[in-house]
Amino acid sequence: MLEEVVRDYAAYLKLDVTNGFQNIQEVIDNMLTRLEELDSVLQIIDTVDQVVLTLQNNVERLEQQVNKAEKDFGMSNDNTIKSLLKPFIKKSNENTNVLNVIDHPRKITFESIMDNFEEDHS
Questions:
Q1: CB count, 10 Å around CB of 116?
Q2: What sign for the dihedral angle of Cα 11, 15, 19, 20?
Q3: CA gap 71, 84 in Å, rounded
């Protein structure tokens, strides 16, 4: 009878560790998968951030050139026909002075955003 009681208590104290380890391994695998997904999302965010910065720089360059051209031609922001035609209506002696002041246009070079994308078609 004593041996029977010992066996019963021994059965209670037996732990099935393999099942517990398997559950822990599944949880770890799921966490690693989520971490890889997060890493790929962060890479996409970095790429989009670089594209936005490049586009912002390109727009700023273009805006500077437009502002300079408006200043050179005496354009104002009131958007009337008179202000639009003002550079052509000026007296001829004023036009020669304006031409002397206006710098020659410079070519605007923009940064390409395509460098931010990988060509991975495999």
A1: 16
A2: positive
A3: 13
CA dist., res. 50 & res. 31, Å (int): 29
Q: What pLDDT, in 10s, does the model give residues 6-64? A: 888 787 777 777 777 888 999 999 999 999 999 999 999 999 999 999 999 999 988 88
Q: Which two tokens stand for residue 59?
A: 């727009």
- Report residue 49 CA to chain centroid gap: 2
